[in-house]
Amino acid sequence: MARVVVDVMLKPEILDPQGQAVQRALPRLGFDGISDVRQGKRFELEVDGPVDEAALARIHDLAESFLANTVIEDFTVRVEEAAEVAEAVK
Q: Which of 26, 34, 41, 77 sits a CA distance of 20 to 30 A from 53?
């Protein structure tokens, strides 16, 4: 079993009110020096079997048609290494 991660972020030209709200709150909470915050979504998909080119292509299609609104969002698809997955389970 492998883990594939899809990260979805608003495109840079799209206003991010949630990110702006977090950015404005940081100085009040004592976190200075942060000039910008963008909020996104992360999807972790546990895949049965090997993650080959065909599996990645299917996940890319899934992300493009279901997980991200490609009009306003960009996404990346990556495979997490087995060591990263094991560490995350601890």
A: 41
Integer distance in angstroms from the first to the last C-alpha of the chain?
Answer: 17
Encode pLDDT of 23-52 as tens digits: 999 999 999 999 999 999 999 999 998 899
Cα 3 vs. chain centroid, distance in angstroms?
13
SS3 call for 19: helix
Distance, in Å, from the CA atom of 72 to the CA atom of 12, rounded to the nearest integer, reads 9
* pLDDT, tens digit, 9 for 90 and up, residues 44-72: 999 998 899 999 999 999 999 999 999 99
DSSP 43-74: EEEEESS---HHHHHHHHHHIIIII--TTTEE
- Whole-number Å distance between alpha carbons of 16 and 38: 6
